Amino acid sequence: MKKVYVNEDWCLACHLCEYYCAAANSGAPNMIKAFKSGKKPIPRIQVEEGSEVNFAVQCRHCDGKACVKGCITGALSIVDGVVVCDENRCVGCGTCVLSCPFGCIVIDEENHRIQKCDLCTKNHDGDPACVQGCPNNAIVFEER
What we know:
By secondary structure, the chain is an alpha+beta fold. The chain is about 20% helix and about 20% strand.
């Protein structure tokens, strides 16, 4: 299965992956409309900046799937190897947030539901938006 990987040596910490991700998951037809809609779109990828190393953190769709096991409402499931969230079932309890060993799931303060990377399976064709928007090719979508 293809997954998103980050080469931290190439990450510039420009945060463009966050903007592309937020726009792609906003439901708006383009980035300008996503950010002018009045509702701040939330990225499902976060850039962590360090003094010498920068890297993007997103759901790794790991083999253990602790978040799926920890979800008390059954909102998280696995579809073709991708951990996806049924937003109608999510109550924002945060058990998946606590279960994720990588800190890749956040709760949207506005609608009290989780936000996590689903590899743009619902809203994008081809590579995920963060991969397509990375100017330095630090984020790749490949099978390893």
